[in-house]
Amino acid sequence: MNTRDRILAKLKAATPAGNRPVPDVAAWFAGHRPVETGSEKAVRFRRLIELAHAEVVAVNAENWVKKLEEILHAKGLTELLVAPGTEHGRQAMNELPAAGIACKGYEQAIESWKDEMFRQTPASLTTARAAIAETGTLVLWPDADEPRLMSLVPPVHLVLLDAGNIYNTFYEAMQSESWKDGMPTNALLISGPSKTADIQVTLAYGAHGPKELIVLLMGEAA
Amino acid sequence: MSEHAMNFMPSEGFRARAKAVVNNPFLRQSFRGAMDFLIDKRISQFPDPEELESLRTLGEHIRQYNLDKLPELLLRLEENLTRNGFKVHWAETPDEANAIILGICQRHSAKLMIKGKSMVSEEIELNHAAEAAGIGALESDMGEYIVQLAGEKPSHIIMPAIHKTKEEIATLFHEKVPGVDYTDNVDALIQIGRKVLREKFLEADIGLSGVNFAVAETGTLCLVENEGNGRMSTTVPPVHIAITGIEKIVEKLEHVPPLLSLLTRSATGQNISTYFNMISSPRKPGEKDGPQEVHLVLLDNGRSQAYADEQLRKTLQCIRCGACMNHCPVYTRIGGHAYGTTYPGPIGKIISPHLLGLEATKTMATASSLCGACGEVCPVKIPIPELLMRLREESFSEPHVNPAMRGQGAGYSRLMTGVWKAWAGIYRNPALYATWTWLASRFNWLTPANQGAWTSVRTPLKPAPRRLRDLLRERV
Question: Which CATH number applies to B54-304?
Fold first, then answer.
């Protein structure tokens, strides 16, 4: 018998009858979490992610590139990593260079430019698929167009979020979107800039990931 | 690999290690301060006692439901992970797990493995094994990095470097990291760590991580963290190896949100961690980053022994939040290193005997006042005090056939058991009891002045010259 079969045999020999009822997760959430309106969710989301040290800027479909440009100028950033395969990435690429901000597209597999990603990429722009009001959380589903490292390596991460995509809870998000029927390579919940309290429980930001997280909240005036 | 976790004798030297900490006011102050901070943070996350209680009940239910189906779920997990492109490995012992991991490293001619936080990798002493095989293993969690630089082990499962002051860390960085001047500014220290470790993420051939939840129905590994080093370790290097105990499995994705909420709120008093990282496949064709190869090592290491007993199985409900440590008056006094095990505190006392055997851990369960705080705060309602009583019984009862645990009876002493049996016999029989107390009161001058641990800080115990029944008789 190999190791796998040995472990399984030990467990099977001891497996209980298994007549325990299925946990009713839906009932718990229905009884313990408020269902809020769109603007209430946006307010709660904003309050909580700001508590976690993220910045939130209200934008709309017309002015978001302009607002983005203002933020980058205010922070003295002149370079932005974008996803050229996406609508928002293309829009940023088309409009920002005129304002003196160079846009770099994530076009090649990371192997060919890992060093540059780590050393010469001060900021990035991605979209968020959704958000969670309960915890002030962004949901990112990186893909071929908008890869995983975009939201991790650059010290400043800007995220475009449609306020219409805010769910009450993590549970509601995964149920409404039937995540279990098709998880991506990597799905992420992000609730602020990278941080640590490992030295004398003193909170410090910018541990390994982005030092700054800026949410461009589109739509709802939150 | 001779100095393996398997060969540790944590029960040896426990008293001396505990005493050293108790006599060190700085260490005691660090632990007390940090634990008070974590206790306050946790309670601020649970303002509604009904919500807390019902969520704990749900968490317990989810964990027990999934443990009931463990073998079936492991097979489903393996099937779905394999379909998603993972390679799944099984290990019964730490040696087997190390051999699997180092085998993968060697196939890739790896020089450097960068590690996200993984207590299971501590459990198997992976760093030592890697070093012996000539492969660098570098911790990237800030706390773990500090502890590794200092040549120590984590003293807390969530806050590994909780025993160190910022001044000590400042000195450590100044001495061990080339070109670093002394600074005890916490932000500056973290930025030093960030800079050093970012270079290593670039360089590393292998990323290693633990797992917080493995979801069987989707074939997904979930990781909880704040720093981003877990995401780095699982995204930047070309190969990712995850290692987990076989118990950390849930059947459904919908089981994750309640457990995640319990975990982060109980552990550090955060409503959620900064990152929750769900990995369901290696890099797919067309994707531009992420590892080309992802492995999962499923480790037994004594867990199947706990599983075989209905009561001991509850040990495996644990989601490793550390709240039991934070609330433990013994842990707070003696710190994590005194225990001598990978997992310290209350959870350490109930899991280590399965990992290491009772021969090595026979007295661990006695390092408790049975105050019950650990059981009260446990987010998945593990009855830790009950389990401590059970483990004392397993340790100190007479060795018998078919024991539930390896090393049962390791602490057995015929004399001690005999004394307690006689005591019980006397107290159950009124005539014997009367005789015994008559003798004790008349011959009380025979009680020794030195009564061991009792008299080290107290006056000796001595039976009263007249018994209660004598006094009552005179009153009538």
Answer: 3.40.50.10420
